[in-house]
Amino acid sequence: MVEGYPDYLRGQRGLSENTVRIYLDDIGSFRQYLGLEEVTLKDMDRAMLRGYMAWLATDALDGKGYARVSIARKLTVLRSFYLFLVQQGLFKASPVPSGRSYRVKVQKPLPSFLGQRDVARLLDAPDEASPLGLRDRAILEVLYSCGVRLGEIQTMDLPHVNFTSKEILVRGKGSKERWVLFGQPAATALRRYLDEGRPQLAIRPESALFLNRYGARLSRRSMEKLVGRYGIQAQTTLGVHPHTLRHSFATHMLEGGADLRVIQELLGHSSPSTTQIYTHVTKQEALSAYLTNHPRSDMPPVSSAPPETDPDD
User: What is this structure's pTM?
Assistant: First the structure.
């Protein structure tokens, strides 16, 4: 039933090859779910749709789950697929409803972050005796010191760095520009990389700040892999992605007393509600501390009555 779907997407829908690939990947997720549940395409109903959405949010991606925007896209693709099957005469109507009727709210997970000791071990992980080690230390320092997104650090160019004011110009979502700040540890790591590491990598003219071993701009995928590798090497308490350091930056700033509006500006969030999630993280930490330490939390309260004495004492 899937065989004619790619041609339908290219022909009747006029989609590009890249979009067709995304659609087929999304249908692949649905087929995986069908196999796990031992059901077929014809079994689709509202209950099964909700089960699929719950699986996407929690158990898919090796237990990591998809973000809400990815789940919404997968549902749109699934509806398109069933409409194709209707066209082929295999269904009388699509069992996937349109509009808001099938938008089941998925709780957005709280951002994961590293403790300050884990961050310190991570930053110390690269071997700074090599050009690549100097580069990697600078990347980790900038990610944590500036709280930038992966796409923002990957597109940094040499002229974007101002050592005098300790600022870097970044282009965020929607090509919006902003200046981010960095501290002395990041300045030291950047200076060492630019003085000792980058010249050995720059085999041809290149404006990119961070280069690969061939002298070209380091790719997003390579940055993801190196951050994850150093996380394993540093034996951090959770898996590390560049965004983990962004979350850690925001959480540690908030814990240190920074105003939420300042953090919003530094992160490049257009809405305060996006930054607000970090207050939930610290509230969760506070709740944990309360339940552990307060004498009248969920632990048995300390009685006001004097302790009972043994009659034989």
Answer: 0.60
